[in-house]
Amino acid sequence: MKFQIPSLIMAILERDLRLALRHGADTLGAVLFFILAGALFPLALGPSPELLRRMAPGIVWVCALLAALLPLDRLFGSELEDGSLDQLLMTGLPPSLIALAKIIAHWLTTGLPLLLAAGPLAIMLGMPGSSMVVLLAGLFLGTLILSLIGGMAASVVLGARRGGVLLPLLVLPLTTPALIFGAAALDAAQTGLSWGPDLELLGAFLAGAIPLCPLAAGAGLRAAVE
What we know:
By secondary structure, the chain is mainly alpha-helical. 83% of the residues lie in helices and 0% in strands.
């Protein structure tokens, strides 16, 4: 069984990616929301380029957080409804690794496209090119954190009545520190200050989330099918 674990994880990952490519509404919806929500901010803030540039870090991160939330309620829900979650748990693969494989698939189909769309949005908001590396590095860490915490929260509310309403209430407070550190690093890069400590805090947050979130998500999956 020990030698079958990597192949089982890859099979789950390949299955989720194939389904995402076949039904790309979640990925397309998240990217469109990310870009359109960011594009609406200039209409609310006014025509001042300086104000828009100063608000850009927070705009990008808030839009990324909200866009990553959109497909979370279906992360495990479809498997619970059609019974495939029971079959996955019967393979003998630890529930935490099943959850981790699906979280990775969520990042590849949601977090990675948001990362690619962040550059055009940042240019549209008037961010300087010198801060683009900090933006992409921070969003790389941040979208991984969002997927891990989102996957954990999605498993906790799995099967609950009005789970789609409870999900944002769980995710938003837990991801707020990542949003603060990411936006602070980007703001520091724009103003010429040191942005390294904020990215280091993001990295520490991610290092803690990698082992803890899949374990909690696995416990949630086990509880949902019992």
